[in-house]
Specification:
about 450 residues, five-stranded parallel beta sheet, binds adenosine-5'-triphosphate, Chromosomal replication initiator protein DnaA, P-loop_NTPase, lipid-binding
Length: about 450
Amino acid sequence: METQLQETWEKVLKILKVEIMSEVSYNTWILGLKPIGIRNGVFMIDVPNELTLDIINQRYKLLFKESIKHVLNQEIDVDCVVGGLKEEAVQEEQEEKKEKEKVQAPEVFGTLNSKYTFDSFVIGNSNRFAHAASVAVAESPANAYNPLFLYGGVGLGKTHLMHAIGHHIQANNPSAKVVYVSSEKFTNELINSIRYDKNLDFRNKYRNVDVLLVDDIQFIAGKESTQEEFFHTFNELYEARKQIIISSDRPPNEIPTLEDRLRTRFAWGLQADIQAPDFETRIAILKKKAEIEKYVVSSDVMVYIATKIKSNIRELEGALIRVMAYSSLTNNKNITVDLAAEALKDIISSSQTRSITIDLIQDVVANYFNLSVQELKSQRRTRNVAYPRQIAMYLSRKLTDMSLPKIGDEFGGRDHTTVIHAYEKISDALKTDDSLISAIKIMTKKINNP
Ligand SMILES: Nc1ncnc2c1ncn2[C@@H]1O[C@H](COP(=O)(O)OP(=O)(O)OP(=O)(O)O)[C@@H](O)[C@H]1O
């Protein structure tokens, strides 16, 4: 708990320091504060004196509230107390005493985030299939698809969907034992169980569940004993007709050093991917978030945020929270596009420098194949030019928001059907051609870090 509190506090300070406050104000008012703990939904902060207390209450309390809410992902109040840590020490001593007298409480399994439900999940083209598959599994665990393997890029809603499945199953069957764990936690627990000779406890914990949700499975790649243990856990649960749901940032066949026997098992059920959301979905997500948090934001501002932040829903939500925090800090209730631009200027300038253009893609692909960009755009159809051109079109479609006709234009005025053909051809080849997979990886990396 102590470390968790400290971690939360550090994250909050980082937001204030890096993103919002001037160095002088930060050093004057914030440096001397200390977190006390969370009591009954209130985050308590120790302040050194009455003057600081006044300033924090007047200027920074709302900001703290927004930042803590953001970090913890839960509704929270903030209270500041002068000398609160001393009082706390006395209270803690008393609580410790009481605690010792209590019988040990049953172990609580990885808790589900109450905000991650199907109700709060916005459906769009990018996640429709994954959502439908998740609902099917939630309605009929171990009967619909087992395992369900959800994959997609960072911050696109995999964890949200997993938790939503867990909530739904628990609501339908309150006695169902639902366990959520990240593969890192699974690994750490396994290591500890071996170190402290508690292997049996570990097995009992994971093999006696009705629903096992394992997040970010890609991290068990290369960890032999974790894979071995997970393999047996998987088999036992599967045979006992228990539901297994796994998430990863990529499909099983792209996780390096994942044992084949696991790869095969992951393919037994259903694999569903989540793509980056399109503009309409990004707007719908912002609207939903604003509704949940009771933010009043104009559609101009939402359009502005959705235009600037495209590929990560966590960042999209973070941007909205940042705009709201900025407005409360500057005491500016009129949230305009200008205010949003000011609040987001650091994030946006860094994401703009990251922005991917067709010129950049053409440069990287031409370079990779030892061609000139002119050749890539030319009408030549020999394979040594046509194939790299198709790859460049594929990457343009995949990595930018450009429309098909626009991509065609950029490749010597070709028709959009040529772009579709190139995209499909390369997508198909990627299913079987390992050397193409690795070439695309190298080029994508280069495009992302030119
Ligand atoms: N379709 C959606 N509707 C509403 N909120 C969403 C949606 N998709 C993602 N989010 C929100 O975006 C944030 C990031 O989502 P989540 O943590 O589920 O991503 P992830 O894919 O598991 O990311 P990571 O790869 O980092 O584990 C969460 O706050 C989640 O609620």
